[in-house]
Structure formats: C-alpha cells, structure tokens
Amino acid sequence: MGKVVDFDYDNSEVQDVWACQWQVRIGDFMPNQPDFWWRIKTDDNLSGIISNISDNIQNIILPEIDKRLTDDDLMNSLIKGDFTWSTSVDKFKYLTTFLKAKKDYDSLNEVVEKFMQEPDGKKYYNIVKEHLEEINYSK
C-alpha cells in the first residue's frame, strides 16, 4: 500500500507485522478455520512435521498471499470482503486509502457513506473521522 499512496517506503527494512495491511493465522485458511498449532514432542518425527508445514505453506499460505500480492488485488480483496482477521475499521482505512490514491472518488464516497451508517462506523466515529482527515477526504 505504501507504493500506491507514495509513502516513504523502504524495502530494505524488515517491516513490523503490525504495520502490515493484513495479518492472519494459518488456521484461518484451513478447512473449518481452526486455530491451528503444530504440537511437537521430543520423540516426534521432525521430517514429517517439517513436510506438513512446508506443504501448508506452499498449498495454502502462498496462494493466499498471491491473491493479495498487487495493490489492485489487495484492494479487490478488501472490496469483496474476503479479508480475514482485519477489523472493520482497519479494512475501512485500507480501502479508503486505496480508493483515494486511485482517485476513485465515487467508490470512496460510497464506502464512506455506507460505513458511517454501520454500527462500527458509529462506534468508532472519532477514529474514522481522524483517518478521513489524514487522507484529506472531503465529499
């Protein structure tokens, strides 16, 4: 997202996980979305566990990352609502920032109006208002 809105983004620095546009636990992409943990005991076969973890990364995680790899793909994920484990306010912030950067003012106005009518828009009014001021939003 930093690329779209032309933030001072430094690819050479390791980014803080909390600064990411989306965060998710691997279990959220697994069938039935369990909170999944690999339990490893000292007498376990590590090669089998490593193989299982590697398979999950290749077959589950990487395809999910690929779905959100470009700015447009990430924005489409936000619009479609398949954005796991983001709060509604986070989703709103990311989506409005993208729409503003893309100069899609009709969609931006629609997203803002709709969100402000929802319970979270009312509940977090001050946070939302501050964000809209930060992106210089005006209808």
Any descriptors?
139 residues; mainly alpha; single chain
Q: How far apart are the first and last residues' alpha carbons, in Å?
A: 23 Å
Strand content: under 5%
Mean pLDDT: 81
Shape label? elongated
Order of helices and strands: HHHHHH
Structural class call reads mainly alpha
The count of β-strands is 0
The main pleated sheet reads as: none
Number of helices: 6
Radius of gyration: 18 Å
| Uncertain residue segments | 1-7
Query: Which bin fits the share of residues in helices?
Result: 40-55%
Describe the protein in words.
By secondary structure, the chain is an all-alpha fold. It is 53% helix and 0% strand. The protein contains six helices and no strands. The protein has helices at residues 46-67, 71-80, 88-101, 105-117, 119-123, 125-134. Helix 2 packs across helix 3 (88-101), helix 3 (88-101) packs antiparallel against helix 4 (105-117) and helix 3 packs parallel to helix 6. The chain is elongated and about 60 Å long. The two termini are 23 Å apart. Residues 1-7 have low confidence and may be disordered.
